[in-house]
Amino acid sequence: MSPSDAPVPDALVAALLEIERHVANLGWDQPARLFALVPTAELIAAEPQLAEHLTGGTEPRPDQFSAIEQEGFSGAADLGEALARIAWPPTVAGVALSLERLFLPGDAEAGLAAGAAASEQVRTHPAREEIRVVVGALRSGDAFGVARVRSHPDELLSGADLVPGLASALARTLD
């Protein structure tokens, strides 16, 4: 079984779904948001007053993650460069990123210019779609992503290889 065929930990999927719900409640046109994924049991051990808020009074599952948003993160100018400057302490088991992007359906991509000109063409193209992705990576090497297309708000796409380049960039922040 290759790593991409291995089952993704349920705790990672649950954390990403929780982040997607959180960001969706804020509406569209949100900036990129970065989250540390910390084992909930370890967080409660360090900060017992958070127990009720994090678990609703129930015992946390041993593999449960809490997502902690990193205030002040800005990936607006160059997301790759922003991620390359990040390093996490050992207490962080994983990382997740929520961001919105424009894309074109495959048949509308023909004739696009290169570089910045292509970005402008996509931004103004009548067939453009907006997507919100939430991608996460764990120190274990597991990665997963969920995505919602603005024009189909009731559908959630998901997969271990949904946005592999972003998952790899996030994983590098954990090295």
The rounded distance between the terminal residues' Cα atoms is 24 Å
**Unreliable parts:** none
* Major β-sheet profile: 6 strands, antiparallel
Q: Order of strands across the biggest sheet?
A: 2-1-3-4-5-6
What fraction of the residues are assigned to beta strands by DSSP? 15-25%
Beta-strand segment tally: 6
Q: How would you describe the oligomerization state of the chains in this entry?
A: single chain
In short:
The chain is an alpha+beta fold and 175 residues long.
Description:
It is a single chain. The protein has 175 residues and is an alpha+beta fold. 30% of the residues lie in helices and 24% in strands. The protein is built from 6 helices and 6 strands; from the N terminus they run H-E-H-H-E-H-E-H-E-E-E-H. It has a 6-stranded antiparallel beta sheet. The radius of gyration is 17 Å and the shape is elongated. The relative contact order is 0.19.
What are the main properties of this structure?
alpha+beta; 175 residues; elongated; 6-stranded antiparallel sheet
